[in-house]
Amino acid sequence: MRRFAWSIAILLTVIALFVASDPQRARRAIFMATLFHGVDMTDEFAHMNDLFPSRVVRTTDPIPLPEADAKVRLPETYRYAGESRNLRDFLDETDTSGLLVLRDGEIIHEEYALGSSAETTWISWSVAKSFVSALVGIALDEGLFASVHDPITRYVPELRGSAYDGVAIEDILEMSSGASWDEDYGDPTSDITRFGAGIVFGSSQDEFAASLRRDREPGTYNRYNSTDTQVLGMLLVRVTGRTLAAYTEEKLWKPLHMEHDAYWITDDPGMEIAFGGLNATLRDYARFGELYLQNGRYLGNQIVPAAWIRASTIPGKPHLQPGRQPGSASIFGYGYQWWTPPDGDEGEFSAIGVYNQFIYVNPARRVVIAKTSANHAYGKDESTDREVESLVVFRTIAHAVSDGAAMADRSAAGNADAE
Description:
By secondary structure, the protein is an alpha+beta fold. It is built from 14 helices and 15 strands. It has two domains: 34 residues; 378 residues, DD-peptidase/beta-lactamase superfamily (Beta-lactamase).
């Protein structure tokens, strides 16, 4: 309660300063100050470009995702914490604005709520990190930098003297940079809150990254740090000579023939918010997941190197493995900006963003699930965030739809034999 009161006091001060001279910045301040405090964010998440500067990511020759001849009903229940729970209640309780299920690349289930539709561009939050990872892999394949083992400061010299000085790019990809960081969304004094405040006040996120100091040896401890991804965005801008939006458009949106334009929100100096500022439609989030299901190939073209897909989705070091690890602050496993679940052995992986944004990929079941949400309770712990529970729900759906497909295939084969 004290934290919320402090946030409100800060908010009132900001509004007094900006409301007359800069109404948009005042709205931005209200938005940032009320995040993670139970406020309905549905409209804001669907219209982030009304609050922040943005840069469009255009598609070319859009190709709609194929739709299965017969849609599939979701299972009614799932098992979690030793009890049966209602899946529809879960979707409602987490304020789901969209849910899409692909099987074998075809839409078998698609639904929208909270005023959303197939044309709604929705904030990715940290799901954007997985897109940034893909772009880093493409840039490496193009020879724009030599190796993930190179120090980031070879390509981004303005980080010299910071926590990132001499840190290998791979350590940053794996959220193991060693930079001191506190990602407590409910604490107005945390690093992530200061990071967000900088966006409100129009300061440079690149300069913020350069201000961090180190408290651990790089490559030894996995600690979620959104600035690590912002630094990867800096790397992409430096080695490509392009904006992050332009590179996203050229290397992902156009070759994937995404259905709709997307956009990145930016800070006032014009740098994209790489750690969580992508806005896209549910179908295009799902298509990106399908790209990873197909090991980086789509429509016959290798868009992301297959080796990069494996490195991104299979934790490669002891401190990155799922489960309780002395070298990790999380029970999830971690690759190159992708998560693996704390249990299960199906090779699943997921992009995860706050407020319950997900791209879930289950290669064994040939299933991709995309979910956009505005979970008003998010920001405390697993009891409110429900991220582990979400993966259980997705696994339940994947099992149900793939088992159903297998039964249908066997039935069709039997009918053919009978004829």
